[in-house]
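Supplementary notes for students who missed Thursday's class. We covered one full example, reproduced here. Read the sequence, then the structure, then the short commentary at the end.
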Amino acid sequence: MAILLTLSAGFSAALFRTNMVAAPVLAEKVFGVLSGRVISISASEKKSRLLLDKLDLNSGDTVPDLRQTRITVRKSTDHIKPGMRVRMKVFLLPPSAPAYPGAFDFQRDAFFKRIGAVGYAVSEVEILQETNDQPTFTVFSSALRDFINDYVYAHAPSRTAGFSVAIMTGDRAGLLQDDVEAMRQSGLAHLLAISGLHMGMVGGLIFFLTRLILSFFPALALNYPIKKWAALIAILGLGGYLMVSGGSVSALRAFIMITMVFLAMCFDRTAISMRNLAMAAFFILIFYPESLLSAGFQMSFAAVFCLIAFYERFGQIILVRARQGGLIQRIVFYFAGILLTSLIASFATAPFAVYHFGQFSSLGILANLVAVPIMGLWVMPWTVFSFILLPFFDVAFPLELAAYGIEAILMIAHWTREFPGAYLEIGTVPDEFLYLSTIAVLWSLIWRGKIRFLALFFFLIACFSLFSFKAPDLLIAQSGKLILVRAADQKIYVSTYRSERFERERWRLLYQMQEPARFSDRNSAVKCDEAGCIFKKEGLTAAFSRNLYSLKEDCMRADIVISDIPVSANCIEPELIIDYWDLEKEGTHALYLADRAIERIETVNGIRGRRPWVP
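Structure (token representation):
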């Protein structure tokens, strides 16, 4: 009954959350004058992103009553603050559909954030109202984050300011793209996301400093439970850090976990256990059930689950041996603990990193061995100190001192990724790989007897599933302008470099390739003229018609006809026709060919099904 009740609660939470966030979504591109209240600002060197609510759109087209929209502004927004009401000329578009069947769903992500449209400004941002008549907690926390961001950019060295902002408020827009790639490829990207590492460091520093200060007063230290007082103060400090960090899933999970640790201290209970992790997952999935499918949720809980399972079994033994020796032995055990923790976390998150990002850092363990101590012993203490001084003093030295450590971390990241094989681009893997890998890890850690070795069976099947994965032979973007084909020699060709750049980059990662060749290139497997293109594979002929005049001929000789304009009902010879209406209704199409037949057809909306966020 308890299991059935839990399952019922899960489905009910998902349905309740979906109905709670449901909001109108824009159907097509429109131009107009938009006014709204600024909820948050994410600014980089070249552009800013404004999240607006309380919208008023003056447009010639009939548009739904949108709740929120995200606007990209390429002109200066230094004069804009959260809570202001602004106005600008904009082009609004619906949130992007997945780049191919099974890819990341931006429309789903926007739906649960109540963002009904995205767009870009084509004019200056005009301020209509300076103050907010109805302040909300969201606007207040956004204004606080914006204040901290401005403070950091004004006082920190420009090279490291983006990094400091990322670990203080969670806004990564100010980071250089090359630095982000280096951190990801070296296995250090987790240092940029406010998660368990940052929450643990901040909470630990507040707890340690509070207890240290209280211990200076014998009357307090000898007569009152100052350890429990320090734990409660640390919880308050973590709550403030969560508020300014934006409340991501990983930060929320870490906050719940570490709060339970400190509360356990207050009630003299075991601080870290699987029960605490399960309770953190329970709370998050009840209030944010959509986070279950996110990379942050999966990787965060996978890493902590495996770490708790290991240290529950061997942690006490390691701790006792570390304390038996002198200072040198403790230092050795400290670095050994970092190495072991990085090793466990890397292997725990590897299946999810491969599944979501198509790559794995093979030298991440060694990079973390050097970078994590710098982060914990130098960068975070000075960052916390700057938080403490910020309301009282206008000083720059904490951020300037933290910058030395940040420079070292960035240097390690760039240096690590230069090694041959430092990171492996695996490309897209099948869903079965993630499911079976997850079952294998859970099976091996939950069971206690010899039955746990059955996990090896699930892991081997997961590895074999990688070899069974086959990328599509043809991909046709929803616009019909971008087409990709995989020739018999496995070379990849695309129809254009001019449009659909975002989709083309996602397709490049899917096929794990460098820049693909074009249809018009010499020795191309696709033959083109002014009327269209012809591609042959597996005994089938696919025609890409460019105009009405070529459609008649293509209908007579091709097995597959693809066109970005409507095809008449008289075209009955081809085995398959994909025209404007098919692409408009179902999104990007993926075709799999085998032995003179179309093996299967997948579409974006066919994979997603009937969902509230699917147009």
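Commentary. The chain has a mean pLDDT of 86. Residues 146 and 253 are 24 Å apart (CA to CA). If anything here is unclear, bring it to office hours.
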